[in-house]
Structure formats: C-alpha cells, structure tokens
C-alpha cells in the first residue's frame, strides 16, 4: 500500500526507549472478510517520526492477555460473533479500541513493557533482547575463569535492554595457588582476594572486552547471592571504548557507606556487564509495594496488592543518607542521574545506591519523561534534585507521583510539605530548584533525622574513596555537555508541541465554537442585507423611470388647464423601499407609489405621446398658459428640479408646442441616464 511506502526508520542501536509513543486509529477497512484498523503512531513530538500499522482485533486480544498478570483494569471491547461487519458496530468498536490503547500508552508501567513496545513498533522491538544479552555475557566472561553464568531472573526491572542472571564464582583449583587471579598478567597476593589491579584485553571485536574486579574478601561472599547485570549502551553514550577502561577501573574501586560496591565489571562494543550482591529483601520500591523482588516488573508494580508508607523518621534518615551519597559523587565530578526507588536498597536502616555506572553507559533515566517537560531541569545536579523529590514523595506517601509536578500534599508535617514543594511544585520547576547542599540543610532533616552518632548500623570503617584521573574527568565533562545538549533540544521540542496543543484546545473549546458560530451568523446576515440593498437599489431605479415616464402626460394636462402665472413644481422624493417617487407640490395631489413599475416606453410610444400632446395643446384657448418642469443634467452631481414658469400668448402657440416637445425629449433622456445616488429633495418657493 502507498501509505506504508514512507515508513519511519530509526536505528535500533542506542534508541531512547523512554520517548513517549502516541497512537491514533485513523480508520477501519475490510480485508478478505475481516476488519483491519489503520493505526498512526508517532515517537516523540516530531511528526517526522511517525509510521502506520494495520492491526486486527485479535492483535488487541493478544496484547490484553499479556497485561492480565499486571492486575491493571483495562476495558477491552468484547468480541461479537454476528453482526461484527456492520458499519455502526465497527465505528463503535474503533472508538473503544482507541480508548483502550490510550489507557495503555498513558500508563508508564504498561507503556514501558515489552508487549506494548512490540505492539506499537514491531520492527524495532521484534528482536530477542534476552538472547543477545546471554551471548554478550558469555563473550565477556569467556576470557575469565572465575564466574559461572546461571539462569535468568526474568524481567524483574523496567528496562527492556537490561537483563539479570544468577552468577556464581568458581572455586579455586586445588593444585594451583590459593590466590584467585584474573589473568596471567596479574601478580599473586597474600590472601584470597580479587585483585584490585586489572587486566585489559584491548580489542574492538565482539568477543573481546575489558574486565575489572574490586578487592573484596571471598569470605564475605560465602552465602551471598550474586547477580549479573547486562545493559546495552544508551543514546547518551559519548565516551569512547578506550576511555571507558579507565573509568570502569575507578568505578570498581569506589567505596562509600551508602553506595553498593561493584564486584566485577566488563564491557565490549555492545554494552556493559557488572556483578554485585543481590539483596533478598529487594529494593525500596519492593518494600513500599510489599512485593517479592524476583517477580516480574508488571506483576510487582502494575497493581500492588498493598502499599505502605515509611515513618517520618525513616523518611528523614533515608533521605539524608541519599543526599550524602549524591553530594559525594558530584564532588568527585561523577554525576548519578538515575535515582529512583528501584535503585535504592535498605540494609539494616542503611541506604545504598545501585547502578552508579548508568550515566557513563548513556542509558535514559527513569524520570526522564517527567523532567523533559521542564526546561529548567537539564543539569546533572538539577536532575538528581528532581529525582530525589520523587523518591522522597514516594517514601512519605507510600505511592509514586504519577505526574511531573505535585498538585496537593496532605498528611505530612509542614516542614516536609515545604521541602517537597520546593522541588516538585510547578513554580519550582519553572524557576530554579535548590541545590543538594541546600536540601541537606533543610529544617525537615534537622527536626526528624538522627545524628551521625545515632546511626549505629553505618560502617565507619568503610571510608569514602573514589578517584578519577584527569583524563577521565575531562571525558565525563564532555559527555555531560553532550547529554545536556540533547536534553535541551528534546525539551524545546516538547515545549513547542505543548504550545501547539494548547492552541488546538483553545480553538476547539466550546467557547471558541460558540464565538465562531456567532461570527458566521453575523457575516451571513450582513451578506444577506447587502444583497437586499443591492436588489432594492435596482428596483428603485426601475420604479423611478417608470414613475416619471408615466406621470408626464398627466402633468401636462393639469398644466394646460391652469391659469396664467400659475406654476407647477415637480419634486423627486427618495424612498428607502421603492427608490424614488414623483409627487406634486400640492399636499392634496400626490402621485401613488408603484410596486410593480411598468417597462420603459419605447421610441414609438414616446413619439405617439408627443403627437397627442400637440393636438391637445392646439385645442386650448390662447389665454391659457402651461408650465413644464425643466430637468437639468449635471455630470458630477445631477440634481433634478423644476423652478421655471413659462408664460406664453396666443401668438406663441407653435413655438410653445415645439419647446414642449423638446423639453419632453430632454426629460426622457435625462431620466434614462440619471444617477440615483445624487438625488436630493428640492422645494419650490411660492
């Protein structure tokens, strides 16, 4: 079909999966005895990133079955066996399916799931991400003899391109040294440790990579469950492969009481692999939703069976520890940018942050669809502050904030309310957010958080340590600038799209519809009045010509019977409805108004009337005198008036007849050529 020729193509590599996809069911058509619906889909605010798909009703049914385990109520229209090809039924089902797909795409949990992505964009998400993750993980581990890749943990996270596997470390060879080594280039140590040094297998092939490990006592790993995480690079990955080697070396050596350490890290041209401890109690989000950590993301957080909020003391203590970790990372020139309740674990009332390597991998943040709507939130610190506000809100209320700004905060202390409003209110997002240091010094933490001496579970022996080389800091700084530039461009596009939507809503509002309707009625009325006025003007001209031509013989008779010295003045009067009428100056002698004017007399009729008039004039006595109105024609403003009196004797009958005939001809000619717009009323002076 022609509509599918210009299909939108975007490279699947480094695609931002957090960009919102909209769907509109344009029409329905019958194909081979069944109905197919034409879907128009668009990624982000740009209309160039759009494509079209044909879907059957069974495709919606299959999608619905994948979401049953989430527990989210969705209203899929029912199936009908008979009458399902009627136009009225198809139109009704089309509207119901539109509402169904809107409910899915507006829900952040459902919209980010793999079934929803494959439904709206099958070309991009039809590949098997799990199989690719297994292959890359095995390729990264094949040069190392320390780890055994176990079974997959399933889709326990929200990212489509991140996968979790069980992993176990191999026991050392009894014949070999009692020291675990990473490669032949490493030296032996004095105890059973993973060496802090690294070995790099520099190569750009798919089977080569760089591996790093941190110095952790193997005795501490006994009985601990480990998890291997494979993550693909994201759209904001701006650091070269050779530079990542030094940065990962620093990441594996990072130590902080509120940051979970990375035991092992490796990367290749496709992504990064990390190994860290798996905590059975789950993340902070699992605690708030009372969920089992190893369940799938949809079943855990789609519609939780229960929710619980933390006490104000816990909120203050956990919030303060999170701020301590964020301030430490920013002081070292390393942004975090991926704070949310799923990346926070609580171990004996001690907070630990996860996935600190995400920023250098360039993967999109969890709250990116929210802060992309606010142009003032674009720096790494502002992003961390904004995300901290969402985590604080979720800990205090027991449920996540589903909007980019908070509208109403209830059931919390005034100090916490002020703190949340300083971060998540509409005014704060429009102007400027506070810094991390300002948040740490807020009165809420002074009132509810315990002092450092009261935190007995904090490991004071683990001194904060994180050292980046100057070259690594410079590379990270450049990557931050490029990521910020991409974020700004996306925020501008979203802002322009919002402006367009507001204009469209304003134009389609009921008030605008009413005003447009009134304006159309007024224009129609004015057009109708103009047509009536034009028609009346044409009728008035015809009426005036007919009135004057029909009244001349009658006035001539009256004038011949009048006494000498008498005068007869003819007046043209303008009328709004019929144009103009001809009337005598005498109040008792008025010419009637003609509604249906007679046609203009022909030349033969005019000559005949002139002959009859001459015969009538010869029969009268010489003493009688006649008067006739003289009509004068002017080129610019023609006025028609009669004010001349004619007195004649018996000896002037012939001259009078000739003059009367000439005056009559001049009158008729002037009537045929007169300008109605220049008519004015003239009164005689008796």
From TrEMBL:
Coarsely, its chief localization is membrane
The Protein kinase domain extends over 196-500
Annotated membrane topology: Peripheral membrane protein
GO BP annotations of the record are: early endosome to late endosome transport; endosome to lysosome transport; negative regulation of monoatomic ion transport; protein targeting to lysosome
UniProt-annotated location(s) = Cell membrane; Cytoplasm
Q: Which UniProt keywords apply?
A: Actin-binding, Cell membrane, Cytoplasm, Membrane
UniProt biased composition (Basic and acidic residues): 510-526
Q: Which residues form the PX domain?
A: 15-126
GO CC annotation, single = early endosome
The UniProt annotation puts the region (Disordered) at 506-529, 580-661
Molecular-function annotations in GO: actin binding; ATP binding; phosphatidylinositol binding; protein kinase activity
Q: A Pfam family for this UniProt protein? A: Pkinase
Which PANTHER family does the UniProt entry name for this protein?
Answer: PX DOMAIN-CONTAINING PROTEIN KINASE-LIKE PROTEIN, PX SERINE/THREONINE KINASE PXK
Which protein is depicted? PX domain-containing protein kinase-like protein
